[in-house]
Specification:
Blueprint: H1 6-14, H2 25-32, H3 44-60, H4 67-81, H5 84-102
Length: about 120
């Protein structure tokens, strides 16, 4: 049988020559697990495309009561999109949306609700 006590085993374990862990081991483990930013459920461009499609559908559906309404709606949309000011505002809005999406997310630095506090 083994006649060693727990104290003697602890002393022997503490005397083992162990190699030091890498300096950034803890940080890399935390970065890979706890601090990992979850993936987006859908891509931002896909969400934008669905938003535009739904907005267009919500605007067009009330005008689709008859054939003359459809033709009139297509005519008004084509005329509106052909205006230079509309094209400029669409360009400015698209650039602003892409610029806002390019801004880095600062939420990991904000800890409003942390467990254990």
């Amino acid at each position: 049988m083994n006649d060693r006590t727990d104290d003697e085993l602890d002393r022997l374990l503490a005397a083992l020559p162990l190699e030091e862990p890498p300096a950034e081991l803890r940080a890399s483990i935390l970065a890979a697990t706890v601090r990992r930013v979850p993936a987006e459920p859908i891509d931002p461009w896909e969400a934008g495309a669905w938003g535009l499609l739904l907005a267009f559908a919500a605007w067009v559906i009330p005008h689709l009561s008859d054939l003359n309404g459809i033709i009139g709606t297509i005519d008004r949309v084509a005329f509106t999109l052909a205006q230079p000011t509309t094209l400029i505002w669409l360009t400015v809005g698209s650039v602003a949306a892409f610029a806002a999406s390019a801004i880095p997310d600062f939420s990991p630095r904000i800890h409003l609700a942390r467990k254990g506090r």
